[in-house]
Design brief:
By secondary structure, the protein is of the alpha/beta class. The chain is 40% helix and 19% strand.
């Protein structure tokens, strides 16, 4: 009998985090209701071996090289058997039966087809990173002028982060984070999965945009919650460069040429303003390094490369 949900987790150098995530998921959700597929992006920290040893019920897919998030999800989804695919980050810890919450809401409201939940800080307050608006010229103007930073809680000046959204009740959202995302497997297949043009970041926004064109209506399910251990709190230069590369790729693929050029110019202006501020104040110096990498991120991600051969470790038990 096929499981209701296929949980797909992409791992890269996250041995301890993914073990904790899987242990919490095993405790929180009834066995038999889901399967776990872990796609390991050529980690060198023993992640794949550790998952295979401690969670023999999981299907582990080992990639020969790191292909990024969306491409790795596609590999895992191709092996899914569930009616639903649940994307879950390895740096998350489910709060309660997140699978049950999602499935109950999806069964009651099947018209949405795409569902996200709430990602929380360690103190269980919302981190505001599970749902976003689609990119807009106004949003980039606010970023370029610094308004989105100065007035971060303003719906007008920080539209991308949806600061006015009441996340304690179900609500439609324009786009959902791949950190915690449930969607119909049939819809994922109809979309062709994530576009291989993205290595990491903005592929989830692109997916939601394309799903909406097919009639889906992404929605926030407040009862589906995870503590997000890492990710959003990072201020690393590498992460910011990847975020900007994802944004530039989205502009290239989704906006008309002139509008996309304006969007990239506004992104560059926003980074330049922050780099200048860092120089003057001596704070947030990472923006100066991000500015130095502008040629890289303004170009976006290159076209997706051919996927490497994979090694699949089949489950040794049927606990789930």
């Amino acid at each position: 009998m096929s499981p209701a949900v296929s949980v797909v987790i992409v791992s890269y150098q996250t041995r301890d985090l993914i073990l904790r995530a899987l242990a919490t998921l095993r405790t929180a959700s009834p066995s038999g209701s889901y399967e776990v597929i872990v796609v390991d992006n050529a980690s060198t920290d023993g992640s794949a071996d550790a998952v295979t040893e401690e969670f023999p019920e999981a299907r582990v897919v080992r990639l020969a090289r790191n292909v990024g998030f969306g491409r790795a999800v596609n590999v895992g989804a191709a092996r899914a058997r569930g009616t639903w695919i649940l994307l879950l980050n390895p740096d998350t810890e489910p709060v309660g039966d997140v699978i049950g919450e999602f499935v109950a809401y999806a069964h009651a409201h099947p018209e949405h087809r795409v569902y996200t939940g709430r990602t929380l800080h360690a103190d269980h307050t919302d981190d505001g990173r599970s749902a976003f608006a689609l990119p807009s010229l106004w949003g980039y103007v606010c970023f370029a002028t610094g308004l989105s930073t100065v007035f971060r809680r303003s719906r007008l000046f920080n539209p991308e982060e949806l600061p006015g959204l009441d996340r304690s009740v179900p609500a439609p959202v324009p786009a959902a984070s791949g950190c915690l995302l449930l969607l119909q497997r049939s819809l994922f297949a109809e979309l062709g999965g994530f576009l291989p043009d993205y290595f990491m970041y903005s592929e989830d926004i692109d997916l939601c945009h394309r799903a909406t064109l097919l009639g889906a209506s992404p929605v926030l399910v407040p009862g589906a919650r995870v503590v997000h251990v890492g990710g959003a709190s990072s201020t690393g230069v590498g992460k910011r460069v990847m975020l900007l590369r994802g944004k530039a790729t989205y502009l290239r693929l989704r906006w008309p040429r002139r509008r996309a050029a304006a969007g990239r110019a506004l992104l560059a202006t926003g980074v330049a303003v922050r780099a200048a501020g860092a120089r003057l104040t001596g704070r947030a110096g990472y923006w100066r390094e991000v500015w130095a990498e502008r040629r890289t991120w303004l170009a976006g991600w290159p076209a997706g490369a051919e996927l490497p051969a994979v090694e699949v470790v089949e489950p040794r038990a049927s606990a789930n």
